[in-house]
Design brief:
Layout (H helix, E strand, L loop, with lengths): L11 H16 L6 H8 L3 H7 L3 H24 L5 H18 L6 H7 L6 H28 L8 H21 L3 H15 L2
Helix pairs in contact: 1-2, 1-4, 2-3, 4-7, 5-7, 5-9, 6-7, 7-8, 8-9
Length: 197
């Protein structure tokens, strides 16, 4: 189990997906090849093709693995095991850790979203589904938090969720371009504080 709650296949398929995740996060979809993945995993390029016939298939698998993380968080939240404020803090703390330790300096789906005009349709659809899931989860967290009195905001929860997501991704971009992980933490924590009455 990864620290973000997803189950990682430790076999060849899992190692290929993990390598592709790192390469996409660093270079984008158009900046890596099956040869790069093969080199990173230590296998032949033909072996990558055996597991994923096309590059789009591999990218979709990487995005779907990220979507499963959102699904795991949603189940945890729906079970009542985590309150709204704790859920929001958990989400932002995950990115704080990843950005600070360099394990994921930027969200893979965001990197792919920036390339959407040049992506194969299946990859674009997977990225869109990722953001739909994330928006639904954030909306549920903010709605419950407002009912519980943990959050105070005037607009619809969907609108606030959209602003929150924009703030998180904007902070990620700022931290990356300035090579300053602390910038993400400062910006996002200030945004969360603004939600708390």
């Amino acid at each position: 189990m990864d620290r973000d709650g997803t189950r990682t296949d430790t076999g060849t398929t899992g190692r290929i997906v993990d390598a592709a995740r790192q390469l996409i996060t660093l270079r984008g979809y158009n900046g890596f090849s099956f040869a790069d993945v093969a080199d990173a995993v230590g296998i032949r390029k033909a072996s990558v093709h055996h597991h994923f016939p096309a590059k789009a298939d591999l990218a979709v698998a990487v995005v779907e693995q990220s979507r499963s993380t959102i699904g795991a968080r949603a189940l945890e939240f729906e079970s009542g095991a985590v309150g709204a404020l704790a859920a929001l803090h958990g989400y932002t703390a995950f990115w704080e850790r990843c950005i600070a330790d360099g394990s994921a300096s930027f969200c893979l789906a965001a990197v792919l979203a920036a390339e959407a005009p040049s992506l194969p349709p299946a990859v674009t659809a997977a990225v869109r589904a990722h953001f739909v899931d994330l928006m639904a989860w954030l909306t549920a967290v903010l709605s419950l938090g407002r009912r519980q009195g943990a959050f105070a905001f005037a607009d619809a929860p969907e609108d606030e969720a959209e602003r929150f997501m924009a703030a998180v991704y904007g902070a990620m971009l700022s931290a990356r371009v300035f090579d300053d992980p602390a910038r993400f933490q400062r910006m996002v924590r200030a945004f969360v504080r603004r939600l708390v009455p």
